[in-house]
Automatic annotation (TrEMBL):
It holds the Pfam family FAD_oxidored. InterPro entries: FAD/NAD-bd_sf, HdrA-like. It comes from Phytohabitans maris. Keywords: 4Fe-4S, Iron, Iron-sulfur, Metal-binding, Oxidoreductase. Gene3D superfamilies: FAD/NAD(P)-binding domain (3.50.50.60). This is FAD-dependent oxidoreductase.
Length: 506
């Protein structure tokens, strides 16, 4: 048996940030991860770029998450944040990264902070003293061991620790069907003539639901590709394949992005419906279906998609990407209305910024009006993540991090992205350390003191108007520079008037 001040279960984007944050507060910290590396879905599920840290041009996720991006850039493995010319469908900025650089940057930052990692392990039980979590039972090659802690952070993404502790939760959107956002098997293809792909996208806008070019506001490593784009479309091609039976796919369009590697495209283009991310048999069937879709689509693309004749499949996720499962019920439930209208909270510990992005729960189509259809809803303003949403009802000794905090299905559709859960992880890690070192239960933490500690780590919990103005001007200057140099086209500008003096396209 080993004792720690803080145990973080799950080494994904929220978990490793939480562990670093806790350790930097002086807490003896253990992070438990089922794979042999950190990064969670970002590395194991072969995700594409990090979603923005930004609301518009305002960077709202700062501190340790930004240090992490800087570390990847120092390794020559990331573009940093690139501004999209059209934020619909992908958000205001995207940060492309090499997954090996991601793993190493996360691990080195954690080790430098004094975090103890335990790989190839998962939580199989919890130790309780009444309603208080006092430790985690871990199963791995060595058998089963007990690790005790003053505070445990559940960063499993599925609320596994909270569920084992008897915490209340809602699955997916709740109701009788408990439907959750669909899963995806991500994949990469090399040998792509990206110029040919881009040329087709330029010439056939009617075949795309949305598309965007990207602009570097800050220089990055010259050996990385300097021109990036994203598109969702080839709808006519996909429809012909579905109608003929040549293509097996869970959606009716192809979403693709450039990467940090020349001639390599990333595809977020499969859709696996009805997967319960907390059930091994359901996950197994989802994995099988996801790989079936990947093999069908990758073969179909090489035969029919422009620029793909010499392409080959080079990478798939170690697992399917799970977007949604449990929502642990806490002292406060963050709602879609809170998110949509930018509600501010007295106990804010992080900020949310991403549009409400809900993928079609049951069909192949993209965004639409049907109750089960996908939704993309822009926000009125950034909103606050309240500390109460990280503290589960009744259960003590436990803090929730990541996409499984206390929130509705609609609210989750916004903060579930990498930037959002990193900010939540930073707050959870600081809170866990403050509670553990102060000898108080997480729900009794002095919130003003907690907020001061988060701000001291570089975290943002309030808007800085002067910084917003500087960031906005830098983005405008960068877009105008690339327009003048012919690196991007007015065709993809959602707000052309800001940059060209012309009226925006309707």
């Amino acid at each position: 048996m080993s004792r720690f001040d803080v145990i973080v279960v799950g080494g994904g984007p929220s978990g490793f940030i939480a562990a670093i944050a806790a350790a930097r507060q002086g807490a003896r910290t253990l992070v438990i991860e089922k794979y042999g590396f950190l990064g969670g879905m970002a590395t194991s599920a072969a995700l594409g770029p990090i979603s923005p840290f930004h609301f518009g041009d305002e960077q709202v996720i700062t501190g340790i998450p930004q240090e992490f991006v800087d570390r990847m850039m120092d390794l020559g493995g990331s573009t940093g944040h690139l501004r999209t010319t059209n934020p619909h469908g992908s958000g205001a900025y995207l940060c492309f990264y090499d997954r090996e650089a991601y793993k190493w940057a996360a691990l080195t930052l954690a080790l430098e902070a004094g975090v103890t990692p335990l790989f190839h392990s998962f939580a199989s039980g919890v130790e309780m003293d009444g309603d208080k979590v006092t430790g985690v039972r871990v199963t791995n090659k060595s058998g089963t061991q007990l690790y005790e802690a003053r505070v445990v952070v559940d960063a499993t993404g599925d609320g596994d620790v909270a569920s084992l502790a008897g915490a209340e939760f809602v699955m997916g959107r709740g109701g009788d069907d408990r439907a959750a956002q669909p899963s995806t098997m991500m994949f990469d293809m090399a040998g792509v003539d990206t110029e040919a792909v881009k040329s087709y996208m330029d010439k056939h806008p009617e075949d795309f639901e949305w598309a965007s070019e990207l602009v570097a506001v800050r220089p990055y490593a010259k050996h990385l590709p300097q021109r990036h784009f994203v598109g969702q479309g080839f709808k006519a091609l996909v429809r012909s394949g579905l109608d003929s039976g040549e293509l097996y796919l869970g959606r009716d369009s192809v979403l693709f992005l450039t990467t940090t590697h020349p001639g390599v495209l990333h595809f977020n283009s499969t859709r696996i419906k009805g997967v319960d991310g907390t059930d091994a048999e359901s996950l197994t069937q989802g994995e099988i279906d996801g790989r079936k879709q990947v093999m069908s689509l990758s073969s179909f693309l090489t035969k029919h998609m422009p620029g793909m004749r010499d392409a080959r499949l080079i990478a798939t996720g170690t697992q399917i990407g799970i977007r949604e499962s449990r929502h642990i019920l806490g002292e406060y439930i963050l709602t879609g209305e809170d998110v949509l209208h930018g509600v501010k909270q007295a106990d804010a510990v992080s900020r949310g910024y991403f549009p409400i992005d809900i993928h079609n729960l049951k069909g192949k189509e993209g965004y639409g009006d049907d109750p089960d259809a996908g939704k993309w809803t822009d926000l009125d303003d950034s909103y606050d993540i309240p500390y109460r949403a990280l503290v589960p009802k009744r259960v003590d000794g436990l803090i929730i991090a990541g996409r499984t905090i206390s929130a509705t299905h609609e609210a989750h559709g916004s903060f579930r992205t990498q930037g959002g859960v990193m900010g939540i992880g930073q707050a959870a890690g600081v809170a866990a350390a403050v509670a553990a070192l102060g000898g108080v239960e997480p729900r009794k933490v002095d919130v003003p003191r907690l907020q001061e500690a988060i701000v001291a780590t570089g975290g943002s919990i309030r808007r800085d108007p002067a910084r917003v103005a500087r960031e906005r001007q830098a983005a405008i200057d960068a877009v105008r520079r690339d327009l003048a140099a012919g690196k991007i086209s007015e065709q993809y500008l959602a707000d052309a008037g800001t940059f060209t003096g012309k009226a925006p396209r309707l």
